[in-house]
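Suppose you are handed a protein chain with no further information: no name, no annotation, nothing but its sequence. What can you learn? This example shows the usual starting point.
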Amino acid sequence: MGGGSGVQRLIDSETVDWFPHISPDGSLATYLRFPPGTVGHPADLPVEIVAVAVQDWTATLHSWSLFGGQGTLNVNSWSPDSARFAYVAYPVGRPADPSRG
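A reasonable first move is to predict its three-dimensional structure. Written in structure tokens, the prediction is:
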């Protein structure tokens, strides 16, 4: 399916929810929840990572609040056994150190 045909909204919320990252076994998904009114997927915001069972997108299994945004869930980062996933949280209150590349 190309050109956006077959697109289906998975949840209805006031937040700005970015595309799901499906676990390798197809049973779980994570997605990034931005504050209402967010345009695009910017950096440096309080966000939530939400975990759901693919059978019911509306039932949150767990959520993690953190400071992040662009890059927090940039690629599908599930472990091969679907038991864990990786994400990136931004440091709060520490200026970036360009010497640490």
